[in-house]
Queue: 2 jobs
Job 1
Amino acid sequence: MRFGWRREVAGWHLLTGVALLLLCATISATGKKAREPKWWSIAKIADPSNLISNHIKSNSLTDHYLDPAIHRILRKKQRRLVRENPGVLVAIAKGARHAVHECKHQFRNRRWNCSTSSSNRSKRLFGKIVSRACRETAFLYALTSAAVTHTVTRACTEGSIDSCNCDYRTEGPSGLDWEWGGCSDNIDFGDNFSRLFVDAGEKGRDPRFPMNLHNNEVGRLHVKSEMRKECKCHGMSGSCTVKTCWWRLPYFRRVGDALKDRFDGASRVSVKNAGNARASNNRQRNRRRKNTRRRRRKSFALLKPYNPDHKPPSKKDLVYLEDSPDFCVRDRKLGIKGTHGRECNKTSIGVDGCDLMCCGREYHTRVIEVHERCSCTFQWCCVVKCKTCKYKKTTHICS
Amino acid sequence: MSFLSPSAPAPSSVMSMLGTKCIDKNYKNTQWYWSRGKQPCKSIGDFDSPIVEEQMISANHIIFSFQIPIPKDGYPLDYSRWQQNLIAMLHLDILYDDEDEVAPDAVMTLDARLGYSNRGDPEGQWTEYASSVEQRHLDCCIEQKKPGYMYNCSHVPLFELGSLHHDFYLLNVRLPVDMLDTSEKTGMNTKLGHINDMWVAFIHQNGGFTKVWVSLKTIFFPIIVAIMVWFWRRISQLSRPPALLEYMLMVLGAALTLLNCPLEYLTLAFDCPWMTVVSDIRQGLFYASLLSFWLIFAGEHLMDDIERNRIRVYWRHLSAVLGGCLCLFIFDMCERGVQLRNPFYSIWATEIGTNLALAFIILAGVCAGLYFCFLSYMIWKVFMNISSKRQSLPAMSSARRLHYEGIIYRFKVLMLATLLCAAMTVIGFILGQVSEGQWTWDENIKLEYTSGFFTGVYGMWNIYTFALICLYAPSHKRWPKDQNTQSSTGEEIEFSRLATEPSEMSSLTAFTKKSATD
């Protein structure tokens, strides 16, 4: 009985292998390898402060205004969005930088430490790993999408984007709306903008299209669900007969933490029928805003758990199609640097422990002298007075 | 009233704003710093910016600027006078740093200025509305004490404006510190940790809600005035002086008229910062007269044949109402009264103020408790008397029986109506609180319920008062003298109160009598 069951499992492995092969076949059939969305590299090109000065310099916001480098990385629809919403480009650039920063923080102790290419020559930001539809890629999509939602919402709250909508629900002359019922929360604009902008970076032909859309949506959803409600009572004599509540945007670290948790519990899926996705996408391309919702639902319906015994992924689960590589050794094809030269923690039993980090290889132990600031006195915002302390530190480095 | 509510928006809405960090090495407290429009201030994105180090920026050179309202849909919004009031709540984003933690009892000193400008003013011309240096307690906690994580700080009240008279407002807030080179060391703003951002949530009443509310008032105001005139004419036609209960009805009507008076129209033309205080007082007066009315009504229906009909008899009970209202009034004047002079003032900011405010509120609570004890005791007594009278009813003469039946009937009607109204108010309030509390982003459906509740409750109590005045007005019909009363001599003495009444009974009693005799 037991034996038979095991054989069944083995059978599953075989099936998996076949499925993987088939998947590779479809990818090669399309002729193109999946690449990371071009707009991500805005984090590399654009220094947000430069963009601000550019923005001030030119009052007319035509296509020519856009920096040629930015013009190149944005798709037509994205360029239109940037043109229509002055000030949004700075927010997107900041968002991309936040995403990189957050990713590096979340993965600082893992084999894959979210390395980015800093050179301007390479077109990609996170490297070739994105061409593989693995967990890490899923995380990157969700994180970048969340970061754009976050920074655009924040920019609206700061008043640096004029075109943030007052209300998505009612339509009419904006002045009257505002006087009658106030404005909805800025997260509505941030969420919608991110959906239009980030999802526009995806191509329907891509077999990974449903996966990417789903993960983008997961990112946005996490920004929303991390919002905290604050209330104020201001009824008669300050009593709670009248209570007004509002939402507070989370600090981006909280979103990063939540997404990292989802990364650990991501579910592997397979796409039901990629051909359908393409067809439906093409058909709906003309009808824009209404469709995003439908498109999303469609992409969601296309995903089914890879293991039929598992539950289908929820709206908040990250999904991936392929297993991750082990990131141990350098792999040019996938742009993996390997863990050679990485620092590890001898006492930890987690992924940052030397055994796991160095993939069973040896590691060198070195004692170095570190100069660090200590016994500091602070005065907000910016005055810090510190002493420099010297102490010895033992480091372990993978060979 | 409730039919208006689906179209009415929520009573108030919020515009949350992130402060722009303006920098000025030569800060002057006469200068304004704004972030949009012509010549915006020089600003930095965050405090890690290289500019900070280059120019040696310190806390005294940083001005958090809030220019409201924020433009939307590419259109510069302005506040409308229909939006009535403005409340600002401030919260700080403070990053954890193991060497620079936020002190548990940290006090921040805010140097805040509020200016205004109107459409048609030249751009950049701001007029000072109020300015003050205030202290606020910072209440922060943190779950994970790790660098890079954010403290969870509760918001603090910043200012309250009773009128939203101008189009644009500009708030400049500084968190000044002692200059390092001065000998003076007050320790001002030293234990605040790593402040990253300052947010202010601006709450204002919705114009749509004000419009619905004011139109309700405009409808009810003449109706209640008319019914009161009618009621008073009825009373003045009587040969006897008005009874205490009738005086109370007039007082109740007057208080409601005061509440109904659509004073809000004034705010459309004039700057009326006193409006919130006045509306608090108006509401308080109405509640006080309603509560007193219930007490006296129950007292007048005790049927224990003690001559009352004088306000002095009720002094003990009424002092509970008056005491409670006085406490709330003093508290209100300490908070919103002082805010007339300094909008940045908050009684909760200082230790003494907090204790004082709490003392007044607790005292008011005690008074409310006392009041409810009195009232429930009285109602219980009335019901006891009713049941004892019920048993002896068949043995009574017809006039006497009718008199008591009338009293019992009108007491029960009022009891039922009052309980119904009170229950609906309480249920509505609880539902409102619950629905507000459960509203999360995950469920996205939000039922707009609060404004329906407010308009509904307001209309209900108007109708309640209207009905009271209507039903308890003395009948203008002359009641034929009952011959039997003269013959039964044995009951003469007990009848002394009754003898004057039969001809001048309230219309409701008259109606019951009539149906009873039929």
Note: Chain A touches chain B through 56 residues (CB under 8 Å).
Job 2
Amino acid sequence: MIPVVSVNPLAALIAVIINTIPVFISFDIYTPAVFLALAVANTILVSHIRVKEFLKLFMPLTTLPVSLFFLNLFFSASIESSALYHLFGFTIQSRILLRAFIIFLRSFTLIYISVSYLTAVNAIELVNSLMQQIHLSPRIGYSIYTAWNIIPFIGREITRIKNVHLIRSGGKRNRIKETIPLIVTILINSIRHAERASVSMYIRGLEDSGSKKRTFLHNSKWRPTDTIYAVSYFFIAFGLFFIIIKKGLFRFSLG
Amino acid sequence: MNYLVSLQDVSVTFAAQKHPVLKNINLIIKKGDRLLITGCSGTGKSTLLYILAEIIPKIIYAKVEGLILRDNFSTGIVMQNPMSQMVTPSVEEEIAFSMENRSMPLEEIKEKTDNAIRKAGITGLKHKKPFELSGGEMQKVALTAAVASEPDLLLLDEPTSFLDNESTYNFLKTLGNVSDKTAVIIVEHRIKKFLKYIDKILYLDDHGEIYLYEDKYAFLKNADNSHKLKPRFISGNNPGFMPFDKPIKRGNSCDSFISVKGLSFSYNRKEEKVLKNINVEMYRGETIAVMGPNGSGKTTFIENIAGFYKKTKKNISFNGKTLDKLKKREFYSSLHYLPQNPEYFFLYQSVGEELKDVMRITSTGYKPLFNFYETPNRSPYNLSEGEKRRLTLELVLCDKRPVLLADEPTYGLDFDAYYKTAEAFNRLKEEGTLIVIVTHDPEFAFFLSDRILFFKDGSIIFNGSPGRYIEYIESNKDLFPGELYLPAGLNERIL
């Protein structure tokens, strides 16, 4: 999706945090509904969201709020309220339906916010931005990159190790016996990899370079539009939250 | 200070070991020095590099005795395992990394990075992610990154072992252009290739003795007599394993042991095909060398033969039956696969257990090739790279099977182990084993193989005897740019 405005990944992260807090502490319909609408508007206006990737991740995760909805609907402790329906031998009460819907909406909104951020922001750019804007130690930043580099290898390497072990043992399968050397090899290789990466960083001068004096080939700029975006997002979110509270629609609940 | 590092009576002992790896080393490295360190596997060559770069004891703990004096200097390194040194998300950033850390101006970094990429001939890799590269391509990037930052001290640990001919040529050309002020230290078993670029040779023998030859030619004169080194590593003489122009075995496809038909492969649907319509027959008692540029699909090819991937099992036949119709035990007990990373081969926590596992199926009278039987309690993972390779070879030779697939079997081997391996492979062949070797080592390929399969962009563009291969090189020089690093005698014939 092509955004109307392009923002720094750190500014987008700030928006996500601002968006998440009210949803996380509320137990009513209005707060998650309003902040879901805000998140959708944000997606349309500023996110570089990769729609296919988003749907691929989002669709399976939606089973969680749906399951929570039915779980609460059918298996909640009975509350004193009018019965609405009788379905498959279950009595559905109006307050239980409301509670189930609130839980559904809240988890649905949280999943939407997280997945839309994950599929809109390039993790590499985010780490780059963290190193440059909030002076995250380059050692931590590059350690994240190193881990990032190794992730796509792991699956392929596991296949490789499994096959090499299977061939060496002449095709005799013993899942338990096979697992131990596989884990040991992966573990030892990971430790060794971390050690070598550490050596590589040290020898190439990362240890000596403070984040302030380091030059970055790819500059992650914090532009005035990012400040405007983050500040306006805060005020819009705060304003909406204030209205919800003022109207008496907000109900506090943690987690 | 008129030196970069000075080691005086330095000894290094690792925590898990009783005896020092390096004992009473005295060495001075000055600006512009060109030193090659060579010697047997496990004698501490890489440890010496780490001491010079202060990695030991700052990053890797070891007990260091003696006096080390050092100036303030910048260092570049190429490690034995290039994947391990990739710490950035793209090739371009990998090359700029040292310069970024030294806070060079951005414009200068960009210019130097672009120049280095162009000179190394890796323009096509510039925006690639490290995990998208083949092993050889990674080493190429690591070398370019080390040279691009123009360090005061450049440390190279077997830098060309995974490189194809053209990349080796480009690398050596780059090495020749390194500033005179930069001290270059190379750890290498194959001296011949680097002779032009070095002044001194430091030899570490397996008794812990070190010999520093200020004059490299003095070492060459001494090598055979004093150090018992095989002359081929020094001068490139034909060791005479095999008659060079022997005709290759041919038969109809029914006689073939392994038959590959219409093999095309990609790791996933989105990716480009790594192998494209491969058709080849392989026979009992044949040694086949699989060669070709980095990233041309050589490793993927032998992995497919070894039955790693379900989707291509129907394209490969073993003894007349396709792999999808063969029982796993029947197939897997008939072959050995030696991976590029020897650690993948180990199943146990000690060398003794590894050997015990294969010894129970070994016929009596097996003569061990290498000397692992005196240190059975060592962890195979704690051996040096060369020792790990030797152990995997020993395990394979103990447990003989009709097919041996080996990915870079000579990488990290010292003179003695190289020779023994070649001889052992020759014996296996005579006993009827089909050997398929992926290698960048032309000497090993030319003198040991009956046939060379040359890969380019996922296809076999040459399939014939080493003799015919030379003729092919002669008539297709555009496919083999740069100087060819062939055994002496062959080079002269071509150039």
Note: DSSP finds 17 helices and 19 strands in chain B.
